[in-house]
Design a protein that fits this description.
Length: 246
């Protein structure tokens, strides 16, 4: 008898957090469609070169208040999945920290694009809490600099024009190859290298389940495609997987 329990890998994208009020910037109704210059705010070249871009970026971070977002039923469903005892790893493209905030153990979450809850210095690499940097903006510093070296601070996220951390990507790839079920939730699966993960999972024998509002390039290869809203469909899927012991 094989006592090994099936490993479940869940890849999450912007779609799981839209019900928490965090906009999908890339989506059809996204900010970048309405205001293409807003893309500069999350692109490393303009961000590094232009203090005005940074000032706009800090103001926007302050105004959108994404740090105050609450997890929704989709995030909580993955906590239920973890508590069921099935081995689980969550790979997320989101930088909002909502999986951990919902109660998922941080070691179960791999943040592919970093986290917006922390800042990092472009000069010395020092990191610190985003909340503290935003407090400095509120108190009148339009572009708070690194306390250690005076360098430029940015969110500890992967901006456009930056590469994903190769170590994090390597871990994600190992998980995709090792898992028995790969579930892609709220992600268009169109942006590489993350879009290669379901391919690696399927190639090494994993089942593939896709939950996304829009079609993805992997729908044909998937064992199951679910189009219903994530905050309803994901809890239902988790209940079914737990009932099946899978
Ligand atoms: Zn520094």
């Amino acid at each position: 008898m094989n006592a090994k329990r099936p490993l479940i890998a869940v890849l999450t994208g912007a779609g799981i957090s839209t019900d928490s009020g965090i906009p999908d910037y890339r989506g059809p109704q996204g900010l970048w469609q309405r205001d293409p210059s807003a893309q500069d705010l999350v692109t490393i070249g303009p961000y590094r070169a232009d203090p005005e871009v940074r000032r706009r970026a800090w103001r926007l971070r302050l105004e959108t208040g994404a740090l105050g977002a609450e997890p929704n039923a989709g995030h909580r469903a993955l906590v239920d999945l973890e508590r069921s005892g099935l081995p689980l790893r969550v790979l997320t493209q989101n930088v909002d920290g909502l999986h951990q905030r919902a109660g998922l153990a941080p070691r179960k979450v791999l943040e592919l694009h970093g986290t917006a809850l922390e800042v990092q210095c472009l000069g010395c690499g020092a990191t610190g809490p985003m909340a503290e940097a935003l407090r400095r903006v509120e108190e009148g510093e339009p572009d708070p600099d690194c306390r250690a070296c005076g360098g430029i601070l940015k969110p500890r996220t992967v901006m456009f024009g930056e590469n994903l951390d190769p170590e994090v990507l390597g871990q994600a790839d190992s998980i995709a190859r090792a898992c028995d079920v790969f579930i892609a939730v709220g992600t268009s699966l169109q942006v590489f290298p993350v879009a290669a993960l379901p391919y690696d999972a399927v190639r090494t024998g994993s089942k593939l389940i896709i939950l996304n509002a829009e079609p993805t390039p992997y729908d044909e290869a998937a064992d199951e495609v679910i189009r219903e809203p994530i905050s309803q469909a994901l809890p239902a899927l988790v209940r079914r997987l737990v009932a099946e012991g899978l």
